[in-house]
Amino acid sequence: MAETDGVVWVSLVENFIDFRQIMRSQTLDPLESWLYRALRYGAAFVIMGYGFAKLNGSQFEIIDSQLDRPMGQVSGFWLTWYYFGYSPVYGNLLGVAQIAAGILLIFRKTALLGSVLLLPIISNIVLVNLFYGIDPGALIVALLLFFGVLLIVAFHIEELLELFWRRQNRILPDKPASRRRTFAINTVRVLLIATPAIFTYWVANHVKRRPTPIDGTWEVVSVSPANDADAAPLATAFFERNRAFMCVFKRRDGQYEEHHFEVDAKNQTLTIWQEWLKKGNVVFTGSYELSGDELKIRGRFANEAPQEVILTLRKRNQVAAVFQALEDQPTGIQSRRALAGHFPPG
């Protein structure tokens, strides 16, 4: 065992020595040298600007008017800003990493290390700018920085190929293997890829999702009797499609209550418990009737004096469509105001 370890360490030292010799053997002509320095200093200047902006609080700042909006109305830009700005520590760590990469680029001996560290960082910035709708000017700067860093890496391509590809098997060289051994190794490789793919598909479609006929977002249109202490304050009911058995009630005062629900589609019965997945005490038992985009729930809440309650709900997108249709009519404003009286505030 000790002899094997000695061979491995000798091989590592030889690789390192060969790698340094390759680095020293490569030279650039004056024009390439000027371009190389310009790319390094330019990329370092820009990325350190990104980094210090995070440390000094000029990035990931949150404004109150955006915090007041429902998440569905927040743009990709402000959603990104809020996500990265939620934890000041994380945002500062990103800034420190960018500054460190920029400092490494400034010095010749650490330029390759800096560019290799910076490439995934700037790649992520480009993707965020592109797919989250960040300012077009910021996207252009990020793209220029990305291609600049890519060119810096290109100057070191031979060194990288030697380090990561051509000489990597000197530590663990290939050995002749029988067909049975080769088949076994390839089977393990396939399983390593297929197993997480199949497992996560199963979790997504058979654990997190248990579709029911009433899945969706439902606005409460009417409650009977109107003075029921449990039903009257309800404004919206969410029977979540992407969280199996999760039911969330939004009350008129803006509070949210998370519950566990199950339906018997055959008998059209609905039961709601206090806690999602844990169940706990029963909150509601009853039945439901589904007719297109209208849902009628009839049953009893678990209170001291239970009485039968009837809730009429309508799918949220259909409620918006009704309002839009009335708005398009000549007397749309008056009609909308009249109809709004029948819908509890959200």
The fraction of residues assigned to DSSP E strands is 15-25%
What is the string of SSEs from the N terminus onward?
Answer: HHHHHHHHHEEEEEEEEHH
Number of helices: 11
Give the low-pLDDT segments: 1-10, 15-25, 319-327, 329-346
Q: Main beta sheet: strand number and arrangement?
A: 8 strands, antiparallel, barrel
> How many distinct beta strands?
8
Lateral arrangement of strands in the main beta sheet: 1-2-3-4-5-6-7-8
Question: Roughly what percent helix?
Answer: 40-55%
Distance between the termini: 71 Å
Domain count, please report it. 2
Q: Could you describe the 3D structure shown?
A:
- The protein has 2 domains: 22-170, no CATH class; 216-340, Lipocalin (Beta Barrel).
- Helices cover 53% and strands 19% of the residues.
- It contains 11 helices and 8 strands.
- It has an 8-stranded antiparallel barrel.
- The longest helix has 29 residues, at 179-207.
- The chain starts with a helix and ends in a 6-residue tail after the last helix.
- 16% of the residues are buried.
- The model is unreliable at 1-10, 15-25, 319-327 and 329-346 (pLDDT under 50).
